[in-house]
């Protein structure tokens, strides 16, 4: 055992002699050439800035190559998640029309409230869709009459999809045919209203910019307390006459 210990000690001494220690100058150079964590962070920041600048030069509008930001990461969506669904009356909504810069811009459609603050250029004061802000304008979304139809009342709106009665054309149908045809037209018109409204609802539901933040609270039977809205002139002007029987048969054949 003693011989083995002596041999290992001699071997260590020989290795120490054969590999002399670094001089202070060489050690300093080695330390200067070492890559630190701070250097890595600086390099990463530089690459991110370079990537963002290149993206803006190429796209002329985005620092992240037009990649859509997930809706749940936006402040409005985070606030809505923390606060939970809020209930608003139609009177409450009026305070969120964008005229008060300390409050978000809200609009409602089909009773659901959305935060459209990120679209303030469109929904804020002076914007092309400002009339939708601070209200539930479901009827206006469908009719396109933005001044007259800032209301959630959809009663009678199916008229815009109904053909105009024409005594000359209607006389070509039998009374039974005309009755059946009018029932079909009413059913289709109601479907068109639902389809048009759903298109706008889907737009806001799928938007990453406009999170859902609450619902509109109304009393049961609120519609009956007001007169049925009159069909606006623009929607009335878009109505067409009913097709004669021959044209109706050709449509069915298609």
Give the distance, in angstroms, between the N- and C-terminal Cα atoms.
105 Å
Strand content: 5-15%
Instruction: Specify the structural class.
Output: alpha+beta
Task: Report on the biggest sheet.
Answer: 4 strands, mixed
Number of domains: 2
CATH topology of the largest domain: Flavocytochrome B2, Chain A, domain 1
Shape: elongated
CATH architecture of the largest domain: Roll
Number of separate strands: 4
Overall average pLDDT: 82
Q: Order of SSEs, N→C?
A: HHHHEHEEHHHHEHH
The CATH class of the largest domain is identified as Alpha Beta
Q: How many helical stretches?
A: 11
Secondary structure: helix percent: 40-55%
Q: Please name the fourth-level CATH homologous superfamily of the largest domain.
A: Cytochrome b5-like heme/steroid binding domain
pLDDT < 50 stretches: 15-19
Return Rg in Å.
36 Å
Strand order of the largest sheet: 1-4-3-2
Pfam families: Cyt-b5 (PF00173)
Protein name: Cytochrome b5 heme-binding domain-containing protein
InterPro entries: Cyt_B5-like_heme/steroid-bd (IPR001199), Cyt_B5-like_heme/steroid_sf (IPR036400), MAPR/NEUFC/NENF-like (IPR050577)
Family: Belongs to the cytochrome b5 family. MAPR subfamily.
Question: What does it look like?
Answer:
Helix content is 48%, strand content 6%. The protein has 254 residues and is an alpha+beta fold. The protein has two domains: 27-67, no CATH class; 71-253, Flavocytochrome B2, Chain A, domain 1, CATH 3.10.120. The protein has a four-stranded mixed β-sheet with strand order 1-4-3-2. Strand 2 and strand 3 (112-115) form a beta hairpin. The longest helix has 32 residues, at 175-206. The radius of gyration is 36 Å and the shape is elongated.
């Amino acid at each position: 055992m003693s011989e083995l210990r002596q041999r290992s000690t001699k071997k260590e001494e020989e290795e120490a002699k054969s590999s002399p220690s670094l001089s202070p100058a060489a050690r300093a150079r080695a330390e200067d050439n070492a890559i630190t964590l701070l250097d890595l962070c600086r390099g990463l920041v530089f690459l991110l800035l370079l990537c963002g600048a290149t993206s803006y030069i190429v796209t002329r509008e985005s620092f992240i190559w037009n990649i859509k930001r997930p809706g749940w990461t936006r402040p409005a969506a985070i606030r809505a998640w923390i606060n939970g669904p809020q209930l608003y009356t139609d009177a409450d909504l009026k305070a969120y029309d964008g005229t008060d810069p300390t409050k978000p811009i809200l609009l409602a459609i089909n009773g659901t409230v959305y935060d459209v603050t990120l679209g303030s250029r469109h929904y804020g004061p002076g914007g092309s869709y400002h009339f939708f802000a601070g209200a539930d304008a479901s009827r206006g979304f469908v009719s396109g009459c933005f001044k007259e139809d800032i209301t959630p009342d959809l009663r009678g709106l199916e008229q815009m999809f109904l053909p105009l009665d024409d005594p000359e054309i209607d006389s070509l149908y039998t009374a039974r045919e005309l009755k059946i045809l009018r029932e079909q037209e009413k059913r289709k018109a109601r479907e068109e209203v639902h389809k048009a409204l759903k298109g706008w609802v889907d737009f806001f539901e799928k938007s990453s910019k406009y999170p859902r933040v609450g619902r509109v609270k109304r009393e049961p039977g609120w519609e009956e307390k007001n007169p049925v809205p009159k069909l606006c002139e623009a929607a009335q002007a878009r109505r067409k006459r009913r097709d004669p029987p021959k044209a109706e048969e050709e449509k069915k054949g298609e």
